[in-house]
Amino acid sequence: MAEKVKDKSRKKRAISSFSILLIILIVLAIITVVMSLAGVEGVEGATIANVATAPVKGFTDALPVCLFVLILGGFLGIVTETGALDAGIAALVKKLKGNELILIPILMFIFSIGGTTYGMCEETVPFYLLLAATMVAAGFDSVVGAATVLLGAGCGVLGSTVNPFAVGAAVDSLSGTGIAINQGTIILLGIVLWLVTLAISIVFVMRYAKKVKANKGSTIMSLQEQETMKEEFGEAQQEAVDAEANPNEKLLTGRQKGALVVFALTFVIMIIGFIPWGDFDITVFEAGAATEEVVTPITGEEIAASWDDAQVGGALEIPEGVEGTVVSEEQISDGWSSFLTGVPLGGWYFDEASTWFLIMAIVIGVVGGLSESRFVKAFINGAADMMSVVLIIALARSITVLMGETGLDMWILENAAAALAGMSAIIFAPLSFLLYVVLSFLIPSSSGMATVSMPIMGPLANNLGFSPDVMIMIFSAGNGLVNLFTPTSGAIMGGLALAKVEYSTWLKFGAKLFIVLGVVCMVILTGAMLIL
């Protein structure tokens, strides 16, 4: 009887990501209204129009990543239509038979490198679907796939070393304050945070995966989620089972092998494209860039006007009829790697990535031998499957939009900074970390957070005699920790939707881990603040 009651309760569907985000949006709007009515300075009460337009503005704000996800869906639809993806996963699982667990630490470490070097976050969205299918076929569940991506890249971002969107943006925001920053200290502290938190996360994920592998009933997923997981990834799992039952059977055709090679190349180039190589003084992808001289005629009146605008000496008198020219340089080529997207590798963002995936979808269709009708149908169906993910990303961004319009985020920052003044390092460091944890719910963007907060928190730490280098890492770790579970992150909510994992399930899975990681970060950062 007890078992029936338990099964019945597990069949109850958890509240959807859409509802969670809408509830957060409305609650925060009510908070701003209450604060405004109470006369709190700096906070404007959200209006009905603010709430109603926030999802639309969120969609506009997140349009590049939303378009990227739609095209990605079409791309994956083409790969799936060729049969290469399921067959490739089956071949991998067959090769790793008995050693599937080794995939977890290897992949988490690779993702973490992307996180610590260039803030790999929204770029991980494509991998949730792939890793979920792979882990299910290997005998785990899709939570393991989601955790491998999210915790791997997330721990890297938490311990950013040269990430231009976190520590880079933080250092840049302090450039006008006259505060000297030691990059060596930042990198060393980032490495410690990165590797310690990654090691803890790898052990956590591997223990759970091992338990699920031994007993499918130990999964944290609800029965509804398990059914959805089987519907989505069951074909890849069945391919793996069939491969095990027929060890001598050829799994991949020549066309499928070719499609997989192109598939792998697509993701490698995407990652290379996103890494800001110029920040590391690597210019190989800009080789061949060229400029040309442009000669522009200019009249005497324009020369005199330019002289006045420059405020050089007194007024300049130009005899009537005098003309001149202005010679300037115009970029005519961005280098050899810009021939497809117009932007060299290392300067890509989501528009360039969308272009790349669209091109490679066509290439894979040709390599895989798909007819025009099959190609179009597969691409449209693949894009349609991503529509819920796109809407989740847009809705998550709407919360940030609302907070910016009402000023609640800046009010919290300014008042918290004032409250921290005069505290000792052993109190200042952990409270600053907790402040960034709170703020990161409102501003999940690391570069956005650095821009608005470091001009306040950096000088505050410096004036109190504490290391501004450590303050930068407090920001990075606090923001990075929250981005492992905040519902305001489109990458998390979109990625979990692709992996068919409910947000509430993710919280249950990682709650203890998030607390442990937070405590470890506070201990490391407080120690650094006391020593440096």
From TrEMBL:
Domain of life, source organism: Bacteria
InterPro entries per record: C4_dicarb_anaerob_car-like, DASS-Related_Transporters
Coiled-coil parts of chain: none
Keyword Transmembrane helix assigned: yes
Protein localization: Cell membrane
Pfam family, one: DcuC
Topology versus the membrane: Multi-pass membrane protein
Main location as per UniProt: membrane
Membrane-spanning intervals of the chain: 20-42, 62-80, 101-120, 126-150, 187-206, 258-277, 353-371, 383-404, 416-439, 484-501, 513-531
Key words, A-Z: Cell membrane, Membrane, Transmembrane, Transmembrane helix
Protein name, entry field: YfcC family protein
Species this protein is from: Raoultibacter massiliensis
